[in-house]
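Now read these lines:
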Amino acid sequence: MEALCFTPYVKIPSNGVISHNVNTTRSRRLSVAATVSKSKADVDLLATTEASSMTEVLQTREQRLRVSPSSFQYESGRLGAVPTIRWRKVFSFKLRGAYNMMAKLPKEQLAQGVICSSAGNHAQGVALAAKTLGCDAVIVMPITTPRIKWESVKRLGATVVLEGDSYDEAQAYAKRRGENENRTFIPPFDHPDIIMGQGTVGMEIVRQMQGPIHAIFVPVGGGGLIAGIAAYVKRVSPEVRIIGVEPADANAMALSLHHGQRVMLDQVGGFADGVAVKEVGSETFRLCRELIDGVVLVSRDAICASIKDMFEEKRSILEPAGALALAGAEAYCKFYNLKDINVVAITSGANMNFDRLRLVTELANVGSQREAVLATFMPEEPGSFKQFAELIGKMNITEFNVGLHTKFELQAMVERMELYKLKTIEFTNNDMVKDHLRHLMGGRTNVENELLCRFIFPERPGALMKFLHAFSPRWNISLFHYRAQGEMGANVLVGIQVPSNELDEFRYHANNLGFEFELETDNEAFRLLMR
């Protein structure tokens, strides 16, 4: 396999400023085989079951402990969840695993064709691998998949089938069709050959890096990439830390390691859609539990800040999942005050949708702590606004969000406000304020029995009417604020007038709707700013 085109490393100089560099020097040679193969028993990658029993394991849906992402949170940058025991045509590492598995299939089996289910990167990897190997490929994608992604797959020569409202429905269809047509199903991460293919990233990092590596930061979704990298690197360079990075609202691996078993998230944040999985793989979890050093959690804002940093330095635009490891590396080094060390961040994907850039732009400065979101309550009297502006001082105001340089400046400004009886509250970490209330400022009258919810609407025709059929005219809809977030759906703030004795009925309809939702009635920001 050709050399990895874009594996940047992040070096922390003495001034603490992170710089990103591409190093392809092959001055360091190791007496290690060029590929991780099944015959390498000492790598211990396949010491589990025979292929037939592995298939049974993957097809069996065990009863999973259902948990919430919010049940296991810790400071951004802290290493938690510590276990107890070039193919740029597709702009993603997913080609490695797909090609490795498909290239090992017997010719007769490959001739029957392959099939997979995916919302993007894995689909393109399978399609390009099939084109290279000369076999037929069917790619099943949810009907909510953006046109840009399924057209990219189609251009690679695969047959694209849009089926199901969610990934789970698309996967179920793909497996059924695969059995009926004798096609081989290519899983996205939980298969030894997929894991080994992804592990070639680790091999290339070890070969190309000059000097010692403190840690390799890897984005984690289902766990295939980090499991493969860990299996290789821990064998040849066991002193190198392998650290996973997950969004704080999509932390399936961290929670699984924390509980000592695979768990299923009751809901998963979709901003970094490339790693938005509710459940990690069984084989990937086994390897991660044995080999990785822990998981760092980062916020959506921090991911946006890293996307901006990469664009400003390299003029490259990463997708959210692609910038995830970069955000984790920066947070980790800042938290532990690490300088003058080499760390590697895997920029795993660049399939960014253009319509998502607006949200990234809004949140990037918050993520880099260059901007804070504050609410100040001013008395209705002459001169109060002028006094407010004078107290802010020389800080830049954008959208009446305060542009800052340090946390100390923020704290000093808030204290000045309080001294002059101007109550000021920081909402920088309140997602509802950043997504909705910043656009709804101005107050409103009290609405009787109003229940406030945030729903994730899938981006497909008919989604709004399905929502309205579920709740209207049974209850009055008093507020509706829609914010598109790209391919994973729209973030919608909804107010519905529901008497207290009808709450159970409302929850029944909300759960049957099939849209992810969260109650926000008790959100402090809404009570203060909109009442």
Observations:
- The mean pLDDT is 79.
- DSSP finds 19 helices and 21 strands in the chain.
